[in-house]
Every structure is written in structure tokens, then in C-alpha cells.
Amino acid sequence: MNYREEKDSMGQLNVPENALYGATTQRALLNFPISDLKFGRTFIKAIAEIKLCAALTNLELGEIDKKIADAIIEAAQQVSDGDYDEEFVVDIFQTGSGTSTNMNANEVISNVAIKNLGGKIGSRDPVHPNDHVNKGQSSNDVIPTAIHIAACLGISNSLIPSLKILKNSLNKKSEEFWSVIKTGRTHLQDATPIRLGQEFLGYAGQIEESIRRAESALSELSVLALGGTAVGTGIGMKKGFSEKVINKLSEKFKIKFSESNNHFHSQSTIDSIVAGSGNLKSIAVSLMKIGNDIRWLGSGPRAGIGEISLPEVQPGSSIMPGKVNPVIAESLTMVCAQVIGNDQTINIAGQSGNFELNVMMPVAAYNILQSIGLLSTSSNNFAIQCIDGLKSTKKGPETVQNGLAICTALAPKIGYDNAAKIAHIASDSGETILEVAKKETSLTEEELIAILNAENMTEPS
Questions:
Q1: pLDDT tens across 267-320, in order?
Q2: Which fold has domain 19-135?
Q3: Which of 187, 318, 442, 461 is catalytic?
């Protein structure tokens, strides 16, 4: 590999000749050879748009001249569009403020601008990564701002739409299965009858709540730290800069962002990220419940519950011919486990706000953005490849009259103790509740049939 010699505030350093990042990024590569985890597309877009809107604002405020501003704007747009994602090379496990990633962005945008102007890459002339691209900013307010923006984009553009698709699929199945009466289950034991459609209505309700939680996270994360610069005081920033930048970001992304009214709070903590992750974890827990219920309801097909049949999407075994497994639901539940684990990492990161700065921002960013992405794609996949193709079977309705819990309907007529006695007799003898009740009560068969009507038990009398 050929190298060029560059200089930063720490001295000389060799940088790969064709790289569009610079010496500070190269130092980070040497310092943090930790993992293969890097910031992804949404984060890169967010930080590039911050730089673009900052250049526009600095031009308006007379802080940089038009030629430099225009070059930064053009370069930042190219980075935002994904033309240079491969130049974002810094490991997630880096400096806790994310300074290396902020400088990675500054250097790439600077060098792309220089390249577009026909200058020498790495010269820092005429567009300087610190003096021009980072003008009015600090890593300490840019990185949390980029995290919030990227998270808001993921929630608004991917997660909420995916959850709405899943909710719609569950509601459709609720309507389709409304006439199917089956035995309910509590404590994994038989309970009074329920409509299969009512079970699915419950799942749809969980997703409706999940959408509200995602919207709550969006609201909290839309408050941005930009404007505090190094420690929350705004040093090095011209008055009005952050407000103008945030207004431009709101217009670009069609999301109402606002500036923090307490920069000392928004830079010394990642409380909003912790709270947002908590909402994502709650969504994961809801999805885990639904996914596991679907697996159990479809278990079998002969030795399990088998009250629904799942779409057959792939062979289930390398040794057992004809076996088909609930793989889409399994995929979903693994995503949920990952999101729950990500939340724990974010909780620990949130405790690392030492004095004026949190020093675990990169790992918190990676985890919350991964959680948003995983929940988005898995919810959509679960809806399309599993829920939409579910069918009810005869197994549910066939077990209702043989169930013992339907004796609950007898209790108001003959008393709890007498109804319990009938249930015990039926359990020991293998008879139905109706058969035992005919012998143990004075009620006529017609009265008993009316009382033990399973459909009537699915709603208040």
C-alpha cells in the first residue's frame, strides 16, 4: 500500500494514499483495532447532514466564505447520499465521546471538498476539517445530536411503519378468526372458552401500545444537544448558530427537532437514549410474547396444540423428512433477545456520564440504532411471512366441549362448590361436563346446553 504523509496536532503520520480520511482517523485506526463494528448508513447520513446544515448556517452568519461553504455543502451531500460510506472506518469501541468518528466525518468531507475543487487530498487546503467543517461545533454536541437524529429517522421511517403493518395483519386475523371458539389457557391450564379472534385482538393491542411507545421515544429523542459545544457553555459557537442548524435539519428530515433547553444535562448524560431504549425493550418484550404464543399455538402438528397452522417457508430438519418449523417466529424472538441485551448495554453506558460528558456514546449509539433496525425488519417480516399466512384448524373448537373449565358457567346456577365437584368427577371419569351435570344436577339437558354454550362464554352475560 502506498502512503501519503499528513500532519495533525500531534505530528506527522502516514495515511493510505487513496484514503479520504486523514491523520486523526488514521490514529484512531491504530488505537482501536477492537472489532468489526462500525457506524452504519443512518448515522453517517445524520452526521453528514449536521455538517451540511452547519456550513449553510456559517455562510449565513458570515463565519466562512461562499466558496468554502459551497464546497462543504456539496461534499457533505455526497457523504449523506452514501457515496463514501467505506471511508467511515473507525471502530465503535473508541474514544467515549465519539471524537474519532466526528473527526472521521470532518476529514472525509474536507477531502471530498478539496478533491471536488481540484486540490490536493490531505492538504487541509482550502477546506480545513476543524476550522471549516467543524466550525461552531464540538464532538461533544455533534455526536449525541447525530445519535438522536439517526434514531429518530429509524423510528419514524422504519419502526413505526413496520409496527403498523404488523398491527394491521393481526387485526385482519382477529376478524378472520372471530367465529372460531376454543379453550382459553391460564397458567398453561384449560380455562373458559375464548374466541381465537379475541386472542389475536390482544396481540394487536400489544402492537398498538408498541407504536405509542415508539412515538414516545421519537418525541424524547427529537431534542438535540447541538449548541453546547465542549461542556455545555457553547464556547466557540456564534449566537444563533445551533437554532438555525436545527431548523434546517427539521426541514430536511420532516421531523420537528428542537434544541435542548439545558445543554449541561444533554451533554453530561444520555438519559434520552436510555429512555428511548427502554421503550424499544418494551416493544421487544411484547413481540417476544406474541412470537412465542404463535409457536405454541402452531405446535405439532399432531403431538402439539396445533390450533393454527403456520406458513411452511422452509424444510425444518436435515434428518427428519417433512418436518416444518416455526422459523419466522423463532427469528423474531431472537431479535427480541438481542434488543433486550442491547438495552442492558445502554443502561450501563448511561451510568458513565462523568461530570460534563458521557464517555460511552459510541456503544450506546450502535446498540440503540441496531435495536431500531432489528425491530423494524423483524416486525415487517413476521407480519408478511408468518401472520398473513396463518390458518385456524379444527383442534381448538374440538376441545371446547371436552374442557373442564366450562363448568364455570354452572357456578352462578348451582354454586361454586357444586360446580367444582362436577369438574372433578368429569376429570376422573373422562366424561364431559354436560354428561356429569345431567346426573349431578336437577337442570334439564336443554337448560344445561344453553348454560354451557361456549359462544356465550366469550362475552359478558
A1: 999 999 999 999 999 999 999 999 999 999 999 988 999 999 999 998 888 888
A2: Fumarase C; Chain B, domain 1 (1.10.275)
A3: 187
